[in-house]
Synaptogyrin 1
Amino acid sequence: MEGGAYGAGKAGGAFDPHTLVRQPHTILRVVSWVFSIVVFGSIVNEGYLNTPSEGEEFCIYNRNPNACSYGVAVGVLAFLTCLLYLALDVYFPQISSVKDRKKAVLSDIGVSAFWAFLWFVGFCYLANQWQVSKPKDNPLNEGTDAARAAIAFSFFSIFTWSLTAALAVRRFKDLTFQEEYNTLFPSAAQP
């Protein structure tokens, strides 16, 4: 068995972008990043309407400004979270301590599960508000495709974040095994 912490065979070595891009959790994180851009971009660009008779804009989701605000807030914060954890994915191979790796993976589990929950709430909220929207509020069907796209990509984001959490659980199990192996066979951990 290779020495060092799980995945740390090259700790302190050169950064390998090819290996990073091929990892499933990195791919899922990039997909989640794109989905978050679609959600907040759709709502920001076409989620607000106004009529000639009214001077103020209103949210396309049942005239509920909280629905648009929630979608934008979750989308932007998920975007930033993806960037943060992509940076952690880049830095992860340089972490040589198993305890520090476990902390990073535990935070990934918690944050990914939390975001899966937030996207579930967002999907339910946006879909409900879209369902009860009145056709008279938008007679020309302006922005309907963007509203539906935000709902659809909120739904897809539930699965990408859930899978990211599941992959983090698997990484945590691998780290725990490596830590126990190093405790039982300390001579095998030395190169």
Observations:
- Residues 23-178 form a domain with the Butyryl-CoA Dehydrogenase, subunit A; domain 3 fold (CATH 1.20.140).
- Residues 97 and 166 are 22 Å apart (CA to CA).
